[in-house]
Write a structure and sequence with these properties.
This protein has 218 residues and is an all-alpha fold. It is built from twelve helices and no strands.
Length: 218
Amino acid sequence: MTPSSLLRLLTWLSPAFPTGAFAYSQGLEWAIENGDVKDEASLTLWLEDLLHHGSLWSDVIILRCTRRSAPAAWPTIASEAASLALAHERRLETLAQGAAFRLAAAPWACPALENWGDAPLPQPVALGVLAAHDAIDEDDLALGFLQAGIANLVSASVRLVPLGQTAGLRVQAKLASAILAVVQASRGLPLTACGGACFATDIASMRHETQYTRLFRS
């Protein structure tokens, strides 16, 4: 990856990029209130499952497929990606972030995003379209995406459990090998490889919809 490409990718995945990612927890808020996630060890296991068997696994495949596919295939990928969101708030999360990403990406003048229209635009599809426009390397894209996703969920957990900042950083350090393994395992997979078995996460996302007191949108 060239230095300029790396700078663009870091910008798009930065917490400062205005997609509103900080407002979503993918059901973690309910899992923490329910006692399923209560400390550093349980958070590490929860996030590792998401990487190997849950939303992050499916999303990185969607991202990769978008990046390497022809533009004519993008609407179909987007439609299938939206259908994978089992909970209402999980669907809201990916579509709202995708719409926000599209608006924030205006400085990079990507015609495919600018002319997307009113069709659903999941967040990994939006990122994949812009990455294709700017010829970002697919493996680097997948690595950055997973690292950003884990960092966002760790940040939410630091506020919710609560965990100290140092404990949160330890969780990220422990998950580095899992992130690298998923980048390698997802390489070249078709869209049909999406799917998972993180039932607790799906249930947590659904229960979050009616949680009495909450700070996050999912």
